[in-house]
Specification:
The complex is a heterodimer of chains A (299) and B (354). By secondary structure, chain A is mostly helical. Chain A has 14 helices and no strands. In chain A, helix 5 crosses helix 9 and helix 13 packs antiparallel against helix 14. The longest helix of chain A has 32 residues. The two termini of chain A are 44 Å apart. With 354 residues, chain B is α+β, with helices and mostly antiparallel strands. In chain B, helix 3 packs across helix 4. Chain B is elongated. The chains are: A mainly alpha (299), B alpha+beta (354).
Chain lengths: 299, 354
């Protein structure tokens, strides 16, 4: 290939050199498997679903979308999902900050981190099963309450059950992310602030929070997308035909109960659009905060 | 109103100690520092000098001892209540704030009103000669400029005491020299006391009014640069002050001067502590051991580095003692030279080198 390049112009650099200038070299080939993976498992199914959603069983090309937005049984699922996803995301991310602030100074950090990470490894279904028995009408929790003459309270098969499970399985994730952002902030910045007269609260507001904001935005996005697509716990712990009839349940029913994969694709597209709107909103708010390095100078 | 240090008479460290687990990083440091003094804490890495500085700043609590600022005991106070200015080794500038906000941060934390903050920040910027850089982020500045911002941020709160932790170690050689005189100039301008941690004896000698040499968490010697340079009180201090030749010698007493025998050659020398006959340490700077035809020590040259005015050489005597010396003329490897030393510049310490 260098021959053809030198043929065309005597003083031009060979192709390999020109490619290297734009950061393309042999190592770039290593990205190919990953790209192939993304194309076959993400881009192609997405494009396929997108096209499929405009080929309804009956009616014109927009029939699926018209149906979704004219049937309250369907369009109410958007609200139900937001009602779960937004509070769960906010609780998980906001709670992770004080916990991470405390944990980063602890000597047994690894042990505590391991304990907090266990829910991730268990998976949603196991957590849901556990909660069903523990929080159920005959579970330990209600029995203890009864002993003190309170209750029983209804904590499963409703909104509360799903919310508890979303916090239990989502918190370790947000916590780990926040902890890693927090430990990435140079500790000498806080020390400098304290020698300049800043008390703990002022150090948090003026130093830690602005440097953490970027990470919290990412954390909010990831956590939101995760909770927005809640399915197992909404079915197992919630009221899948009532309060917690989330959008993924509607998609599931279209695909596997009515065998209308075109409608299911349309619902999936609407779901994706909702997630995209929120993520774009969060990320555009990010431009208001500082986004550079979190070190204090030359290290 | 000009930036000037808050008034105080002296800072007293009394038996200041700090342990990390079972390791005693600081063993009972006692020291008085007067207003206007420039103190250098000098020592090799791990000697406890940075620990001492952090204890004074309040970033570390003491395991024992106390710290007094005039009649107030301050060792239990949090750093934010002590009000000392500190310049960190990595500058620790707030990366999300422009230079002006970095410098004004301490003032706004102390509740100073906006007009006065602006006024004082302007003045601090002009003191460190950064008048036109106020609206940049730290990341947009060079290392030397970041250093100046860090100093401005520390002095603008008018602290009685400015603490500096190896502030020049991240700069290149030329900038280091320039900032060294800047630091001294600013110190004199605002009239605070400065405690300056360094492992560079040249920096300590040129900046400080008094040098505190530390080793293994203890103060080994306190003195003016001249005292420390000419007459280190211990062999290990001497080693740190550039007495590179630490020779095992045999002492033969002779009044104020002692004769020592190095590699079979008898040299007149100056005892630092009272010495007995027997094994001692003789310490000589390479620049005090010079090549001269009248010299009594014969050595074979092993290496010679050109350093402009002279050659820095190393060589060996017939009995295998390694010597560092200087030569005004070019000497070649393998050449035999004769070395001489002024008796006043050969210091003898009572203990033999380890």
């Amino acid at each position: 290939m260098s021959e053809s390049a030198t043929d065309t112009a005597a003083n031009s650099t060979p192709l390999r050199g020109r490619l290297a200038l734009s950061d393309l070299d042999g190592v770039t080939l290593l990205a190919l498997p990953a790209m192939l993976f993304v194309v076959t498992l993400f881009i192609y199914p997405f494009a396929y679903g997108f096209v499929l959603s405009f080929q309804p069983k009956t009616g014109n090309w927009l029939a699926n979308y018209t149906k979704f937005f004219s049937d309250p049984f369907l369009y109410d699922t958007i609200e139900a999902t937001f009602r779960l996803a937004i509070p769960a995301t906010l609780i998980n991310v906001l709670l992770s900050v004080p916990v991470a602030l405390r944990v980063r100074r602890m000597r047994r950090r690894r042990l505590l981190t391991a304990i907090l990470v266990i829910p991730i490894t268990l998976g949603t279904v196991l957590i849901a099963e556990g909660l069903l028995t523990y929080l159920g009408p005959q579970g330990w929790f209600n029995r203890v309450l009864l002993m003190f003459g309170v209750g029983p309270v209804r904590l499963v098969h409703n909104y509360t059950g799903v919310m508890l499970s979303l916090i239990l399985s989502g918190f370790p994730f947000t916590f780990l992310l926040t902890l890693s952002y927090l430990t990435g902030i140079d500790p000498s910045l806080e020390q400098a602030a304290s020698t300049l007269g800043a008390k703990a609260r002022a150090r948090f507001v003026h130093i830690l929070l602005p440097l953490l904001a970027q990470g919290l935005a990412i954390n909010l996005c990831l956590s939101f997308v995760q909770t927005f697509s809640v399915f197992p716990s909404a079915v197992l712990l919630g009221a899948p035909s009532g309060d917690t009839r989330v959008i993924s349940i509607a998609a599931y029913q279209a695909a596997y109960e009515q065998y209308d994969s075109s409608m299911a694709s349309a619902i999936a597209m609407i779901m994706g659009f909702c997630q995209l709107v929120v993520v774009v909103l969060i990320l555009s708010g990010r431009s208001l905060v500082y986004r550079g390095a979190t070190g204090g100078g030359k290290g | 109103m000009a930036i000037a240090a808050r008034d105080f008479r002296e800072l007293r460290l009394e038996g200041m100690s700090r342990a990390f687990g079972s390791v005693n990083a600081l063993k009972g440091v006692t020291l008085n520092i007067r207003r206007g003094e420039f103190i250098a804490l000098l020592g090799p890495s791990g000697c406890g000098k940075s620990t001492a500085l952090n204890c004074i700043a309040g970033l570390l609590t003491l395991s024992a001892g106390n710290i007094w600022l005039d009649k107030t005991r301050i060792d239990r106070l949090a750093p934010e209540e002590r009000g000392f200015g500190m310049v960190f080794q990595n500058y620790a500038l707030f990366p999300h704030m422009v230079v002006r906000r970095n410098i004004g941060f301490g003032l706004s934390m102390h509740g100073v009103d906006k007009d006065e903050i602006k006024h004082k920040v302007d003045e601090a910027l002009s003191i460190v000669r950064l008048g036109d850089q106020g609206d940049k982020l730290p990341g947009q500045l060079s290392g030397g400029q970041q250093q100046r911002v860090a100093i401005a941020r520390a002095i603008v709160i008018e602290p009685p005491l400015v603490l500096m932790d190896e502030p020049l170690s991240n700069l290149d050689a030329k900038l280091r020299l320039e900032m060294r005189s800047e630091i001294r100039r600013i110190h004199e301008l605002i009239g605070s006391a400065t405690i300056y941690v360094t492992h560079d004896q040249e920096e300590a000698l040129s900046l400080a009014d008094r040098i505190v040499v530390m080793r293994s968490g203890e103060v080994r010697q306190v003195g003016t640069p001249e005292e420390l340079y000419a007459r280190p009180a211990h062999a290990d201090v001497a080693e740190f002050m550039g007495y590179r030749n630490q020779l095992r010698a045999h002492a033969i007493r002779a009044g104020n001067l002692a004769n020592v025998s190095i590699g079979g050659v008898i040299l007149p020398a100056t005892p630092v502590d009272p010495i007995e006959e027997g094994e001692v340490t003789a310490a000589i700077r390479p620049d005090d051991l010079v090549v001269s035809a009248a010299g009594s020590i014969a050595a074979t040259v092993e290496s010679a580095q050109y350093h402009g005015r002279s050659f820095y050489c190393s060589g060996r005597t017939a009995d295998g003692t390694e010597l560092y010396f200087q030569s005004g003329r070019k000497v070649g490897k393998g050449e035999t030279v004769r070395l001489a030393a002024d008796p006043g510049r050969v210091l003898v310490y009572s203990r033999a080198p380890e």
